[in-house]
Amino acid sequence: MVEPTHRVTVRAPAKINLHLGVGGPRADGFHPLATIYQAVGLYDDVTVADAPDWSVGLTAPIDGVPLDDDNIAIRAGRALVAHHGLDLAARITIAKGIPVMGGMAGGSADAAATLLAVDRLWDLQTSDEDLLRIAGELGSDVPFALLGGTALGTGRGEVVTPIPDRSSVWWVVVLSDEGLSTPAVYRHFDVLAPDAVADPPVPQALVDALAEGYTDEVGALLHNDLWPAARDLRPDLVDVEAQLRILGPDGVLLSGSGPTLLMLYEDVEEARSAVADLTERGFRCTIAPGPVAGAHVVTYA
Ligand SMILES: C[C@](O)(CO)[C@H](O)COP(=O)(O)OP(=O)(O)OC[C@H]1O[C@@H](n2ccc(N)nc2=O)[C@H](O)[C@@H]1O
Ligand SMILES: Nc1ncnc2c1ncn2[C@@H]1O[C@H](COP(=O)(O)OP(=O)(O)OP(=O)(O)O)[C@@H](O)[C@H]1O
């Protein structure tokens, strides 16, 4: 008789920040945030299978993704097993669809996917509260990758509250050949904004526009406090941003800590023609819908 394969695959989305309000650094070095997250349709698929030891691999090699204990997916797997006081291990395989070091939280998506996959693999029945807490300990963006949809993020980004979003939009994701380091962007933010407030305000007008599904207003209200720091570190982004605005999208935005840039479209045909135009001019870009679901099981065997 053939032994059953014990294997679970979880899909987790990329995120963008429709609003990223950043305050001055706290005593622990992290920055207080008031952010509106949205999950968008670029995904990593994470498969976990019983194994004698923890290990991680990619379905295709990608520079910049560690394949040792530094990989956040292994840290997530170990953390959940330790939480339950168990001595179990898994082989983790990641199929990456989210750009690496693009400010779209690819590593965070892998951590969230691994938490859910490991929970299901061994039927650990972790409560949502515990999963979100462990996620927050792994990284500021990880809880949102579990939640998906559109949400308010506070604290250092790890405290997430779903908000109503009746918009249904298309993002043209304009990639960069080189990544940007998140800590470096935050450090430069501190230089540029030494008087940043301790408590950045919730962007109520954007919250209301999302609840009503008014894409035009959402486009006009997109905002990222890290943009001045990112464009200082990567001056080439200034010209790219200007070229994107000329195409007349409903909005343009730096994704998280960058360097990925985003164009907002309500109409998918307009988004497609922007991609065709930009591709012809040598840009690397793709389309992603938003909002989409958070981490979810796709296969169980
Ligand atoms: C830029 C964003 O993606 C916006 O959602 C996040 O703020 C970054 O989230 P993340 O990559 O999950 O960040 P973490 O892994 O928690 O922290 C990485 C580093 O980013 C900086 N960091 C992150 C979050 C935050 N609120 N303040 C910070 O200063 C710190 O230097 C920290 O050492
Ligand atoms: N599973 C993983 N996938 C990608 N990067 C990982 C992973 N585990 C650890 N890392 C490390 O995390 C760093 C950030 O990678 P990631 O692709 O998550 O960046 P990002 O999308 O800019 O993140 P964020 O938007 O959360 O700041 C990389 O330099 C890489 O060394």
TrEMBL record:
What's the catalysed reaction? 4-CDP-2-C-methyl-D-erythritol + ATP = 4-CDP-2-C-methyl-D-erythritol 2-phosphate + ADP + H(+)
Give its E.C. classification number.
Answer: 2.7.1.148
Q: Where does ATP bind?
A: 99-109
What Gene Ontology molecular-function terms does this entry list?
A: kinase activity
Pathway where this protein functions: Isoprenoid biosynthesis; isopentenyl diphosphate biosynthesis via DXP pathway; isopentenyl diphosphate from 1-deoxy-D-xylulose 5-phosphate: step 3/6
Active site, renumbered: 15, 141
Q: What is this protein called?
A: 4-diphosphocytidyl-2-C-methyl-D-erythritol kinase
Its source organism is Nocardioides aromaticivorans
